[in-house]
Design a protein that fits this description.
By secondary structure, this protein is α+β, with helices and mostly antiparallel strands. The protein folds into two domains: about 45 residues, Leucyl/phenylalanyl-tRNA-protein transferase, N-terminal domain (Alpha-Beta Plaits); about 150 residues, Aminopeptidase, CATH 3.40.630.70. It is built from seven helices and ten strands. A seven-stranded mixed beta sheet has the order 5-6-7-8-9-4-10, sandwiched between helices. A three-stranded antiparallel beta sheet has the order 1-3-2, covered by helices on one side. The chain is globular and about 55 Å long.
C-alpha cells in the first residue's frame, strides 16, 4: 500500500520505498517549495506523468556522479579545449527547462516535466535553489541542464542537447564549478548506460542518504543565483 501524503511536508522513511517499481515511496501532496526541499534533503524526488497523482521516489541503489569522477572522452576534451562555445549559469533557466521538456527521449512517448513541474522549479529558481547550466554556440542555446542545489549537494533533474556534445559540455563545466565550491555529489537519480558512460555509478541508498545528512544542509552554501560567468575555464587551452 502506497501512503498518501498529508498536507504538511512530511514523508515516510525511505526504507519503506517499494523495490518494484524501483523506489516508489508515496503519492499525493503538492510541489510547494517547502515540500520539494524537504524531499531532496531526504533523498526523495517527484516523478509522474500529467493526469496522475504526484508520485515520490527513492530508488535503491542511487545513481550518483562525484564531480571529480566525470569521464571526459578524447573527442569531448578536444571540443572543450577548442572553446568554440560559451557556458553560462542561470541566464536562461526557463528556456533550459522548456527544452528539457520538449526534447524527445528514446523509449518515452511524452515528458514527465509537466507544466506544473516547470512552474514548481521556476519557483525554486526564483528562491535561489534551482540552477541552470547553459551551453551557447553561435549565440544560440545549444544544450544544458538544470537541477537543485542544497548545501553541497546538487540534484540533477534533466538535460538536453540541440548540438553535438551540448549537454556534455554543460555537465563538464558544472563538475568543475562544483569542485571549486567543494560540492560533494551530483544526484543522477536513476541508473542509465548514458550516465554510466559519463562516470556516474550506483551506490546503496543508505550510503546516499547518509552523505546527504552531512552535506545537504544550509550551513554549507546559501541559496542564491550563481554568477553567470562563474564557470570554470580549466578546459580551454591557453596560448
Amino acid at each position: 500500500m502506497i501512503p498518501w501524503l498529508p498536507p504538511a511536508p512530511f514523508f515516510p522513511p525511505v526504507s519503506r520505498a517499494l523495490a518494484e517499481p524501483n523506489g516508489l515511496l508515496a503519492a499525493g501532496g503538492d510541489l510547494a517549495p517547502e515540500r520539494l526541499l524537504a524531499a531532496y534533503r531526504l533523498g526523495i524526488f517527484p516523478w509522474y506523468t500529467a493526469g496522475e497523482p504526484i508520485l515520490w521516489w527513492s530508488p535503491d541503489p542511487r545513481m550518483v556522479l562525484f564531480p571529480a569522477e566525470i569521464k571526459v572522452s578524447r573527442s569531448l576534451r578536444r571540443t572543450l579545449r577548442q572553446g568554440q562555445y560559451q557556458v553560462r549559469l542561470d541566464t536562461a533557466f526557463d528556456d533550459v527547462v522548456a527544452a528539457c521538456a520538449g526534447t524527445p527521449r528514446d523509449g518515452q512517448a511524452g515528458t514527465w516535466i509537466t507544466a506544473e513541474m516547470q512552474a514548481a522549479y521556476r519557483r525554486l529558481h526564483e528562491l535561489g535553489h534551482a540552477h541552470s547550466v547553459e551551453t551557447w554556440i553561435d549565440g544560440k542555446l545549444a544544450g544544458g541542464l538544470y537541477g537543485v542545489a542544497l548545501g553541497r549537494a546538487f540534484y540533477g533533474e534533466s538535460m538536453f542537447t540541440h548540438r553535438s556534445d551540448g549537454s556534455k559540455i554543460a555537465l563538464a563545466h558544472l563538475c568543475e564549478h562544483l569542485k571549486r565550491r567543494e560540492f560533494g555529489i551530483i544526484d543522477c537519480q536513476m541508473e542509465t548506460t548514458h550516465l554510466a558512460s559519463l562516470g556516474a555509478r550506483p551506490i546503496p541508498r543508505s550510503d546516499f542518504t547518509a552523505l546527504l545528512r552531512r552535506i545537504a544542509t544550509a550551513d554549507f552554501d546559501s541559496p542564491g543565483r550563481w554568477p553567470a560567468d562563474a564557470v570554470a575555464d580549466a578546459f580551454v587551452k591557453r596560448a
